[in-house]
Amino acid sequence: MSTETSMKLWGNALNGKAFEPSLDIYLIDSEKPLGTVLICPGGAYAHRAPHEGINIAKRYNEMGFQAFVVHYSVAPERHPAPLNDVSRALRIIRHNAVKWKVNPSKIAVCGFSAGGHLTASLGVHYDKAQDIIADEISRENNRPDALILCYPVISSGAYANKGSFKNLLGEDASPEMLEMMSLEKQITEKTPTSFLWHTANDPGVPVENSIMFAQELSKFKIPFELHIYENGRHGLGLAPDDSHIGTWFELSAQWLKRMDW
Q1: Cα-Cα-Cα-Cα dihedral sign, residues 32, 249, 193, 6
Q2: CATH 3.40.50.1820: does it fit domain 29-258?
Q3: What is the pLDDT of the chain when averaged over all its residues?
Q4: DSSP calls for 67-83
Q5: CB-based contact 168:45 (threshold 8 Å)
Q6: Cis peptide leading into residue 223 (ω within 30°)
Q7: Is the dihedral of CA 151, 239, 192, 120 positive or negative?
Q8: What are the residues whose beta carbons fall under 8 Å from the beta carbon of 145, sequence distance 6 or more?
Q9: Could you tell me where the DSSP H helices lie in 19-68?
Q10: N or C: which end of the chain has fewer CB within 10 A?
Q11: What are the counts of helices (DSSP H) followed by strands (DSSP E) for the chain?
């Protein structure tokens, strides 16, 4: 049986703002700490797609994981606001690990499209995230233990989803900032193990985004799993109308469980 609730990421620090980032909490009963998935819906950094949030969390609950959905800042807010939000969400989960029956060393972040960019950003730039509040939570580790990247925006180069970068960085982003947020170029030996999936003919975010990220993981000998499906539109979520592409979800859960999650 699952319990559901929500909390503000930054407490009352952002009172008065039109949007206050929050964390939705989906817990299942357990006598022992469980592996956990924090979900970042997509939406080109302009909104957060509803079909890439609660339904994903509840499916991970069904597979035996604690699950959370982060409602992070989007345009007109710019970088680093989204990165700070997902970092704070991960710190909150670790801070409440005992109460929420979370294994603090087995927390994956799962993101879709621009939410995949945000997920990968935390994977490569966790040490650059900033805290609005200096408290006990801000001292928690914010590095994910694994990444699940679903048709992710990754590169700001030739295969960029330009709308996502415009919303994240503004019209006049410097070459240096675009380089820093082209995440295939930011992988290090500390980047977490990753699961990626994409469709080969994705018209919104070219499949090369996932391929380039995987290639760089390989260069650093970081374990990864990459699934490319032949046909499918962008933004499929759980792909309820395509049983073949829909296999990605169970594959991702199996991948976590093979790592003893």
Answers
A1: negative
A2: yes
A3: 97
A4: EEEEE---TTS-TTHHH
A5: yes
A6: no
A7: positive
A8: 105, 106, 107, 108, 192, 193
A9: 54-62
A10: N
A11: 8, 8
- Average pLDDT of 57-84? 98
Q: How far apart are CA 81 and CA 122, in angstroms?
A: 12
Residue 1 scores a pLDDT above 70: no
User: Residue 113, Cβ neighbours under 10 Å: how many?
Assistant: 30
Roughly how many angstroms between the first and final C-alpha of the chain, as a whole number? 19
* Nearest by Cα to 113 from 53, 62, 176: 53
Q: What is the dihedral of CA 65, 188, 157, 246, to 10 degrees?
A: -20
DSSP codes joined into one string, 131-161: -SS-STGGGS----SEEEEES----SSTT--
Peptide bond into 21 cis (omega under 30): no
- The strand ranges marked E within the chain are 2-8, 22-28, 34-40, 66-71, 102-112, 146-150, 193-199, 224-229
The pTM assigned to this predicted structure is 0.98
pLDDT tens string 152-192: 999 999 999 999 999 999 999 999 999 999 999 999 999 99
Separation CA 51–CA 198 (nearest Å)? 17
Secondary element (H or E) of residue 100:
helix 97-100
